[in-house]
Amino acid sequence: MARGRSASYQGQREMILAQAAQLFARRGYSATSMNEVAQACGLSKATLYHYYRDKYSLLVSIADDHVSRLAALIDDEEAKHLQGEARLRHLIRRIVEEYADAQNAHRVLTEDVKFLEEADRQRVLDKERLVVAGFAQALAEMRKGTASEQMAKPLTMLLFGMINWMFTWMKPEGQLDYDAMGPIVADLFLGGVGEVKLPVAAGRDG
User: Fold this and answer.
1) Can you tell me the distance from the alpha carbon of 199 to that of 50, in angstroms, rounded to the nearest whole number?
2) 88: domain range?
3) Which of 6, 35, 74, 166 could make a disulfide contact with 134, Cβ separation 3.0–4.6 Å?
């Protein structure tokens, strides 16, 4: 009977993925070597190959793990049975929170998915489409019966246009963190600039 892998093995794999994602995000997939990944992890190259057979397998795991977590978030939200604006606001908050801990992985997904082989790229894109569909469904339900119900998909893409590029300007030491940005994104998207409220903590700091 085969033995299951230990928790430490999985923890080591996750550490390697985090370090690789940071390098890929900063330097680009093509410009990063397995030697550099091993050095960043504090591992020998031989040990690194024990966990991942090559640089490509790192890229696949980073991209697939990231979109899998986003797709699981959609499934989890559907189980909560929230309706209307409450559902969309909760979805926005959850996905912004998820991005807070996955900025490097999201940059890799955005910029390096072109290096994936067709089957791997298709699998990742299919999961991305599930995420988009989850948001579009929430929007369509809010607009049900209106002449513009069919705008749910374009509006969803505009929403993701706001969220997807936050990693390019959000700073960990900045006045606004991802916890604060979730409600701001929801207010802006649902009500316009006039509905955006200054977070309490940011107001105190000012």
Assistant:
1) 46
2) 55-205
3) 74
